[in-house]
Amino acid sequence: MNSLLVEEKLRNFFLEDIGEDDLSSRVFAPDHYSVAIVRAKERGVACGVHLFEIGFRLLDPRVKVVLHIQDGELFELGTALVELEGPTRSILSGERVLLNLMQRMSSIATLTHQCVEQLTGSATQLVDTRKTTAGLRMFEKYAVRIGGGKNHRNGLYDAVMLKDNHIAACGSITEAVKKARQQVGPVVKIEVEIETEEQLREAIAAQPDVIMIDNQSPATVKKWVQLVPQPILTEASGGITPETLAAYGDTGVNMISMGALTHSLKQIDLSLNVTSSHKEAVQ
């Protein structure tokens, strides 16, 4: 992740949550120090651990942060993930923002890891989509990578995706691909979404870089993939779930994109608990 952008995001997240002051933490004197531990309440794949270092460097450099795990490592129920020691006010003011991020990122990394395992032995790669949480795309796409998946385009700016509405407005797949090539040049990749065999054949003739087969059964995907010549890549998408993933992995498609990686996941439960308090910093 871009470290400058990470700092900017965290600064804004803290401003949103803390506002002018954390009223609850006024009950502690400025010289009141605590030790706190972030623990896992279930198993998963760690992601976003280092945000605690960056976050408290911004919020209060006096908070000492010790990481007991690194991004990508598996943790079990009860595992101590992060240890904090410093002013109690600062620890509790930064707690929720950083826990929220780590929980969401670890949830995405865990689900992605589980899905990637289902494709073991297959040459098919699992990729994400743009169906991310507004403002969190950088963090969520990073979590997909940590879980073993790959990133699709990051936004509208780094690849062309000609979907049904683009094609309808242009009049045909052929015309849409032609116009896209004229606008973006030879370096930017162009992908075309298709839903029928007739569209598939037209897309093949137009020679995009990638053809996305949308909302089709594994049997249909397998049949259509065999019609696509190299070097055009193929992608299966639309309603694919962890339960159906393995069947799509057996089709020979190059990529499977799953919006569920970032928009339909069970949140990993992490907690931060103060374990001891004292009146001043320990030297």
Number of domains: 2
Reading side by side through the largest sheet, how are the strands ordered? 6-11-10-9-8-7
CATH topology heading of the largest domain: TIM Barrel
For this structure, what is the CATH homologous superfamily of the largest domain?
Answer: Aldolase class I
CATH class of the largest domain: Alpha Beta
Radius of gyration: 23 Å
What can be said about the biggest beta sheet? 6 strands, parallel
**Count of strand segments:** 12
Count of discrete alpha- or pi-helical segments spanning 4 or more residues: 10
Q: What percent of the residues sit in helical stretches (DSSP H or I)?
A: 25-40%
Chart the SSEs and their pairings:
Layout: H1 3-18, E1 33-40, E2 44-45, H2 51-59, E3 64-67, E4 74-75, E5 80-87, H3 88-118, E6 125-127, H4 137-146, E7 160-162, H5 164-170, H6 173-184, E8 190-194, H7 197-206, E9 210-214, H8 218-225, E10 233-237, H9 245-249, E11 255-257, H10 260-263, E12 270-278
Parallel strand pairs: 6-11, 7-8, 8-9, 9-10, 10-11
Antiparallel strand pairs: 1-5, 1-12, 2-4, 3-5
What labels describe this entry?
TIM Barrel, 12 strands, 6-stranded parallel sheet, elongated, 2 domains, alpha/beta, 283 residues, 4-stranded antiparallel sheet, 20% strand, Aldehyde Oxidoreductase, domain 3, 10 helices
